[in-house]
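Query structure, 327 tokens:
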């Protein structure tokens, strides 16, 4: 009696698995059969919006279905990503994610409403970005070594601006101070442009900025680039060293990518990742991203997961040590 019951349970289980497998195959074969939603957790017009619409428009061509863009800004991009995490995992909802929403925000905000590793399905990394350490053209600092020597001699005297608490240019500075063992004063602004105005006006000692916004000022002779936050020199500024050349172990490199809700079938994850890879391989993609200060760096789902895991281990302790928290 017991053995027959066990056999019946095994048969039911096998039947359920077979049915699930057939459903998954049928789902993949008929996918997509309706428009896709592409969540952009930023307001229209910025780099995140531009790259999302670039990738989304190419997915539309490749998949043969419309892609509807939905801007959901707020809470440093965690609001939109949080809403995406709660959407159906059927392949018809994807969205933009980046270092801020997946690695910094979950450590900074009291409750973002999602676990970046458990509640989202990685699709692909699209690109990487770094910051430049810049000073006014007539600054006495000619190198990172000059700047750090002064910071050690005058603790807290050097000031640097950022786009706000926990922004990439803020954390680039905090990481520099931590790695170099110096104290510098952070001055948050409501946007990088306002901070840059005070660098140019001589109010701030330096700041970290995106290559695309600094480049025109460097060419105009108003700024000097001391270094890049990546581990290698930047293509646009090959004469500027990486900070890591004089301060081993230093690196700030962010990424932008595409994710979907948790539970997306593996077949659809592979399909979407493959289509995104094709979209990023288009001939003009590199030029369009370079204009935004970004570097094409496609990464498969597994690579994106490893990146997020490593970043959580980096930024979590630093944000905690700085006692940064937003309700």
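Result returned for the query:
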């Amino acid at each position: 009696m017991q053995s027959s019951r066990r056999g019946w349970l095994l048969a039911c289980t096998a039947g359920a698995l077979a049915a699930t497998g057939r459903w998954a195959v049928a789902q993949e074969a008929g996918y997509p059969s309706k428009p896709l939603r592409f969540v952009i957790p930023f307001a229209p017009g910025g780099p995140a919006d531009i790259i999302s619409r670039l990738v989304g428009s190419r997915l539309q061509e490749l998949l043969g279905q419309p892609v509807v863009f939905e801007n959901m800004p707020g809470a440093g991009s965690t609001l939109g990503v949080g809403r995406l995490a709660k959407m159906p995992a059927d392949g018809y909802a994807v969205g933009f994610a980046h270092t801020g929403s997946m690695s910094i925000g979950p450590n900074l905000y009291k409750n973002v409403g999602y676990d970046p590793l458990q509640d989202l399905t990685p699709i692909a990394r699209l690109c990487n970005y770094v910051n430049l350490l810049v000073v006014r053209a007539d600054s006495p600092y000619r190198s990172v070594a000059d700047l750090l020597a002064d910071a050690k001699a005058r603790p807290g005297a050097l000031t640097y601006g950022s786009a706000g608490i926990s922004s990439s240019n803020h954390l680039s500075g905090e990481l520099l101070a931590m790695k170099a063992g110096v104290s510098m004063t952070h001055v948050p602004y409501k946007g990088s442009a306002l901070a840059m105005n005070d660098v140019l006006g001589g109010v701030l000692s330096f700041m970290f900025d995106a290559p695309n916004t600094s480049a025109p000022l460097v060419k105009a002779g108003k700024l000097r680039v001391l270094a890049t936050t990546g581990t290698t020199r930047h293509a646009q500024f090959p004469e500027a060293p990486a900070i890591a050349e004089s301060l081993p172990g230093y690196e700030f490199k962010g990424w932008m990518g595409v994710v979907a809700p948790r539970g997306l079938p593996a077949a659809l994850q592979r399909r979407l990742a493959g289509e995104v890879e094709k979209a990023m391989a288009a001939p003009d993609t590199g030029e369009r991203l370079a204009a935004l200060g970004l570097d094409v760096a496609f990464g498969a789902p597994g690579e994106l997961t490893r990146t997020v895991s490593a970043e959580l281990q980096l930024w979590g302790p630093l944000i905690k040590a700085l006692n940064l928290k937003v309700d």
